[in-house]
Design goal:
There is one protein chain. The chain is mainly α. The protein has 2 domains: 3-93, RNA polymerase sigma factor, region 2, helix turn helix motif (Rna Polymerase Sigma Factor, Chain: A, Orthogonal Bundle), CATH 1.10.1740.10; 127-189, Arc Repressor Mutant, subunit A. The chain contains 8 helices and no strands. Helix 3 crosses helix 4 (69-126) and helix 4 crosses helix 7.
């Protein structure tokens, strides 16, 4: 370190604000140009330079400089820029990974729902004939119990019994109905008219 730099550094370590401000004003452009080589965003580059200067001001008493003051600050600026580049790369990778996951989830959910639909329709086909007819008229055609009763020549109570039997059979066959998607709960297990 030159005698002039050693004197400036000693003044900064003793919290001489004027010496620190003079050094900053005289040199920050050099460090800003170095930061811009790594960080094309001039605002971000200036922020790095300012952060380095703030750290030097705050931690001057604990910092031991073996080279020149300018070299030390230059290296600190470049190190911060490199840290930001690494962090930005990690953040970008995390965002891309999150995006990939979010794109995959609907696909896998859709596959699960399709498999569930196939199982559900198979179970509906296994219902006794009259029970299956009542269930399909209720859930697929949206008919009310009294309409089904009129169409099939049954009492409303018999229609209710067939629907209850169908729902119990499907519930038993499909296991944990709490894990079923909302469309299943609404379309099949929710009471209709």
């Amino acid at each position: 370190m030159s005698p002039e730099e050693a004197q400036i550094w000693q003044a900064i370590r003793q919290k001489d604000e004027q010496a620190f401000q003079r050094f900053y004003v005289d040199h920050y452009r050099i460090f800003l140009l170095a930061a811009i080589k790594y960080l094309p965003d001039q605002g971000q580059a200036l922020e790095v330079v300012n952060d380095v200067f703030v750290t030097i001001w705050e931690d001057a008493a604990a910092i031991e400089i073996q080279t020149s003051l300018k070299s030390y600050i230059h290296r600190a600026v470049i190190n911060r820029c490199l840290n930001i580049l690494v962090k930005n790369k990690r953040d970008r990778q995390r965002r891309q990974q999150a995006l990939r996951i979010s794109e995959e989830v609907p696909e896998s959910r859709s596959l699960e729902e399709n498999e569930l639909k196939v199982r559900l329709y198979k179970e509906i086909d296994q219902l006794p004939e009259q029970c299956r007819k009542v269930f399909k008229l209720s859930r697929f055609e949206g008919k009310k119990k009294h309409e089904i009763a009129d169409e099939l020549g049954l009492s409303v109570k018999t229609v209710k019994n067939h629907l209850n039997r169908a729902l119990k059979a499907l519930h038993k066959a499909l296991g944990d109905w709490n894990a079923l998607p909302v469309w299943v709960l609404i379309n099949f297990f929710w009471p209709h008219g």
